């Protein structure tokens, strides 16, 4: 019994360390993708950035594809959680919700995801993984959007209205890739927030 | 006089050949970008695809950046011309115009442009060229959209409404990158065509 307890005590910090290593690798992978693109993002580069040996990185993620799809999924989940936390009482002012949804698609996380998508369109090894990931993340985001916008999808056209809004958000993310598009985006979001509020009522 | 005329006669077919070579290079460059991405698109690969010597390719386009930005600009101009030709009488049924605008952002030309944008976000040599090109093509597309949608930009919010539509079109292009998103896109476009028609009246 004493030996079992001692074993548990030893294992817990080890698991914590392992979890912390994994998380450092995932965060480094996203930062690396956003900064250097797919061509410049290898397991070695990420391991070095995370301060982890290449062997330890490969223990957690056997292939390059494993590492980068897990990384984009990890940050997408983090962002979903953060989005829900912004509106703890559920449905909220629609203009604020539209703004928060669009914010999901600007910044380094979207940039990293975009690099992964574009690379997947030319790499057969990557494509099925990213396609599946994109579908999963897209469904989750749609689900949150419907809930927070208090959109009644049983009414004709409402589902497509929300989908179009999320497509617009992705397009706004793309427009922010090369230049700071913040001022224009602010005006577009304000106007479409008003339109959506009317259409969804 | 006879010698001058003879010189002219000789020069005309040479100019034609030169123009045809340039055009073949531009078309091969776009196809190459769409299929292989920026990393797989070099002047040599494009020259071979176009059936042109590497030297001739470099005569027309001294750098890789020259070739690919010229190529994306060339096809963007072709598509603008084709879009105007679809609606020769100017303003038209808004649902049809929305559909035609969204069509600009699906298919190999958008895919090629997307590869160029994403590469430009990580390559300092490419970024200013592509930023400038994107701004120019974006302005031209906005101009055509305003005209064909019969949108009165002197009214508050109309400019931002049209901009948001074009952002949505780019987002729909992105959603079509890894899978055939045609059926979903069709429903989104139908719904947003209705919304836009009401908002703009």
Automatic annotation (TrEMBL), chains A, B:
DNA-binding keyword on record: yes
Pfam family of the protein (one): TetR_N
Protein name: TetR/AcrR family transcriptional regulator
Keywords in alphabetical order: DNA-binding
DNA-binding region: 42-61
Signal peptide: none
Residue ranges of domain HTH tetR-type in the record: 19-79
